[in-house]
Amino acid sequence: TLADPTWEDAVTVRELKPATGEAAFPSDIRLGRVGNMLYIGARLKGENPTTIPATCRDFDTTVWKDSCLELHLDPGDTNTTGYQFVVNSIGTRQDICTSVSWNGKWSAVATADKADGWSVEIACDLSMFEGVTVTDVPWGLNLKRHVVDTEGRFAEVSGWSQATPKPVNGFGTALFAPMSANSPMTVSAKLRELDQ
């Protein structure tokens, strides 16, 4: 959970925004990096934990149609190839590449919270993107949350950016700094600026 001390030094994203207005469903998201591993922890509030739509139970099905969290990456911030990692409230995963059939190296665990919403932790091995340096190179990065009602309709789609995976543009720019001996999870100020 985000209460774990591991997340104390991670970058905090306080709120994802819908295309207009303010989010009706609060999100608290943390990002951190250790070596080539990118970690995301999220507390996604506002949904009744007993009725969150999670119809997809198999890997690489249309998880984005459920209430879910999406991580979008554009290694090297090239605006040409995007990778999408999707997790629903029961931990079913889907990964998508905008240009080829592909399966990434990543994992996720999701749990419904007793009183409000759900939580998810994602671990993404950035070394899967061959030929792209992790540190000191800009990466396109976006986070999106889909909230689906019990009838299967989108109640809210929020994100750092409302950019869509195709075409690959409009993401935020992340710059992963070299690892610090003093901090096990280090992300540069550029990524921190996205949430301000």
Describe it:
By secondary structure, this protein is mainly β. Mean pLDDT is 84; it is low at 180-196. Helix content is 3%, strand content 38%. It starts with 10 loop residues before the first strand and ends with a helix. Strands 2, 5, 6, 7, 10, 11 and 12 form a seven-stranded antiparallel sheet that branches. Strands 1-3-4-9-8 form a five-stranded antiparallel sheet, with no helix packed on it. Strand 10 and strand 11 (154-159) form a beta hairpin. The longest helix is centred in the last third of the chain and has 5 residues, at 189-193. It has one helix and twelve strands. The radius of gyration is 16 Å and the shape is globular.
Give a topology summary:
Blueprint: E1 11-13, E2 17-18, E3 27-34, E4 37-44, E5 68-74, E6 83-88, E7 93-97, E8 106-112, E9 118-125, E10 138-148, E11 154-159, E12 172-175, H1 189-193
Antiparallel strand pairs: 1-3, 2-11, 3-4, 4-9, 5-6, 5-10, 6-7, 8-9, 10-11, 10-12
Descriptors for this entry?
3% helix; globular; seven-stranded antiparallel sheet; single chain
Helical fraction equals under 10%
Total strand segments: 12
Distance between the ends: 23 Å
Oligomeric status = single chain
Strand content: 35-45%
Order of helices and strands: EEEEEEEEEEEEH
In short:
With 196 residues, this protein is mainly beta. It contains 1 helix and 12 strands, in the order E-E-E-E-E-E-E-E-E-E-E-E-H.
